[in-house]
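Batch 3, record 17
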Amino acid sequence: MKFIHCADLHLDTAFKGLNNSKSASVRQAELRRTFLSIVELAKSADALLIAGDLFDQRTVEAETIHMLRQAFASLENTKVLIVAGNHDPLTEKSFYKLAGFSDNVHIFGHELGMVTVADCDVYGISFSHAVQDTPLLESFSTSQSRPAVLLMHGDLGGTTYNPIQKDAVKNSTISYLALGHVHNYKEEKIGTTHCAYPGCPEGRGFDELGDKGIIRGEVTEKGVITEFVSVCSRRYHEVTVDVSGLLTHEMILDAMRSESLNTGDLYKIILTGETELVPDPDVLSEALNECFFAKVYDETRRPLNLDALKKEAGVRSMLIEALEAGLTGEQSELYRKALEYGLAALDGKKVKSL
Amino acid sequence: MILKKIEIEQFGGLKNFALELTPGLQYLYGENEAGKSTICAFLSAMFYGLPGKVRGGGLRGDSRKLYMPWGENYMAGSLEFEFEGESYVLQRRFGQTARGDRCTLLLAKDWQEVAIEPEEIGQRFLGLGEDAFQKTLFISQSGAAFSKGKEDELMSRLANLEQSGDEDVFLQKALDILSKSSHELISKTGRGGAIMQLETEIEELKSELLSASQLHESFGGAMGEKEQLSAEKEQADAELLSLEKQRNTASLYEQYQKREVERNSRKEMLRRLENEKQALAEKEETAQALNEKKKDYAGFKELSLDILLMMAEKDAKCSVLQKREEERQKLEQETEALSLKVGEQSLLEKSGEGKGLMWSAIAIVVVSTLAGFLFSPVFYGLVLVAVVLFLLYFNKTKLIKSANDTLKELTMQLAEKQSRLSEMNGAGYSEELCALKKEMQQIYEKTGTKTLQELSDRQREAQEIEHQAERLQDEMDRMRDGIHKLMDEIISKEPLADEPPMDYDGPSADSLTLQLTQKQKAQMERERDLAQLQAKIEQGFMGERSISVIETELLDAMQKKEELMANFEAINLAKNALESCHETLKSTFAPLLNEKSGAIVSRLTKGRYLEIKVADDYSMMIKTPKGNEIVEADYVSAGTCDLLYFALRLGVIETLYDSIPLLVMDDTFIQMDEIRQEEAFSFLADSPAEQILYFSCHKPPETFKNTVNNLSV
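Prediction for the assembled complex:
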């Protein structure tokens, strides 16, 4: 059985960290396009395996439901096999039930079900609730005549969201365990079982960095072959730029640009180091308009020669003494900032980073 | 520093004014309007300049305007003073704005200009800034009391007293900056500020999210509803189909029934036609028989209807003629008889007895009886004749008997009779009678009757038959008409072919149609609802922002708020730290200040008030002389209050400086009683101040006899 295995599309959910809703709307549209490109890939496969969290039941929009219906219907020769995850649990009001998908779509229920596709038995079971802290399946037994695939949303070796025991996998006769839930691509062989998370096909925030895609593969009696296929339209990056000693915004911009930014991607740029200049992250983000999205975070510090200041008498040294203790504690950042603000105020300077 | 000379070219009300001064305490006496306050202001302006235009300050707030002489556009003057063994001449000129200001500092000895920034003059020669000057060395007419300002030089100086740090570090200003920054994030009222604005934004986003979620819920609901409605519609479609089928069956059956009725009615008509025809045939038979019968009465046909009348007439005529005949015959007989009688008479005479008459009577009886029996009872009438004849016979006999007597008469009678007879015979009755009888006989023969009665009966019968025939004819005509009509009717309608019988037991097509219409209407409504729902779903609740977009914004706003909160916390942390520094500093200089000020108060009040405590906003608490009550300085009399602030000023000066360069006082002790005043002046005289300028509008006390400078303008 040739298959395309994807998961965690999270259609119509918020994109974190995009501070303008326009970019968020663009990303929503791109996510839909990415989904359609997955469907396009699936046309040459026997089955499209969707391992949960296709959308968020809470927020999915009509347009998306229509799109899913049309896209699935276009897969004339491909079976679409879906299990529901914690974000799109198969409840009474689930859009899986309401959408009225074409006949080639099979949505696994709350009990373990099985569909045979191209000489391969595909098993699957859906989430019925958003919370599932006990395993959906305690053990996986299959009829041994055909190679078996188990499609499930869950946490391999985890504790919440359908925890899947590695031992149970080890003792099973499943050839391919098609998983969803973890947003990073991961493949692992447990016993004879090939376990895989394709990750989310499109990053949705700066906690989902790098290349994103799906798994294309084939399950035969001889075994399982898989490959990761990148399908994402943009990548999220987090870049740290040391701007120590740079005294103008232009210099900082040059320093950022020297990081060879890919204009189509999304960047979170963290400025570090010590400089007298208090960088304005908004100005810098705006200036970096050649990128699809860039947001600059200022984590720079003013050079503070605390020891020298402390030697001088007066209010400054008193202030340093008052705040010094906090600089090594848990809230060091807060104390550091307070010290910076306090010293600036004593110099008659306003708090700049507001 | 010792001020040696004040020269005013023009400043306020003073013009070309000069005042020579000596070291130590100087009592400067002048009446009201003499220009004491103007001189004080001039001194301040010479050391610290005049501020630029202050917006909204009015005349009092704008000292340039306040001291600009009437009709002039500048103020100017000079000071001559000695500082650290060197004499200086300070010249200043003030325009209407700060741009027109000029300031020159010259060495008195060679009038060489000393390079100095005008704003540094006060600091350099008096050792303190304007703020501190106004709060300490310069006690204006408004009183000794003073309060804390933003850039409170004095407090900063006090704060840095024990340190050797920057003197331009303004703790209060730093605190104000931090407060302002903090309030930019969360305003004093707790309602404004960037964080609160974000908070509002977050609340708005949350409520938008809620409404969007509800809408989404309703979207789910709409999907569900549509699903249910679709199922209902499908079921209703099936129902409609079966109902329509049933309706068609019912309709077909009803048509079949109609045809069946038609067929039956045709059958009935045919049957009726047959019956009619049968009846007609019967009637025709009857008519045939009647025609046969009519032949028997054919004779009547040629006869007129009044034949009976004619016959009766003829019969009557016949009877008359008969009677006449009989009369004639009788006459004949009578003639004969008479002739016989005559003959008899004559015979009788010769014996004739009239036996012939008797025989004729008998003969007539026989004949008449026979004829009456055979032909008609009429003939029985002839018996009468016979009777008559008998009577005649008897008469004759009698006559004969008397004939003899009457032969002659008889012969005469006979002759008469004979003549009458011949007359009658000549009239021809018998022939007429004969002809009539023959005529009648012909009619009788023709009609097959014999008598008039018979004829009458037969004629009636003939008429009866004729009527019967006519009626029958009418009847038959009617029947034929009926038959024709029936046939026309039958022919006019196409005969319906026979068909196999149909069976149906259910509601009528009409009631089914009604049901169908109602259900179709319900179905249409359902379809409309469905279309609306579909539209609602298709639109996906346009106009509303999608939940994900709202959530994205919400996440951002929350993150931003978190960042700002971190800043807010840091600012407050810095502020708190600075405040604690302030407290620490205060705790170092406050006791000193309290001690020094307390000593001055004690001396000036002759031990009446011993202790004062000064707060960091320069408000003072004092212990009342009688008990241990502690009150604010503002609660004691105005004179005492002035004294307290004077003590505080001196206390501060003594705390801050080793020596007092200059003290300018504008009637500071005016509210004190003489004893206190005296003590105050004595205190001033003992003070380490190099020069004290005390301006007053009151005559000086005895102690100042030598140091009084009368001011005259």
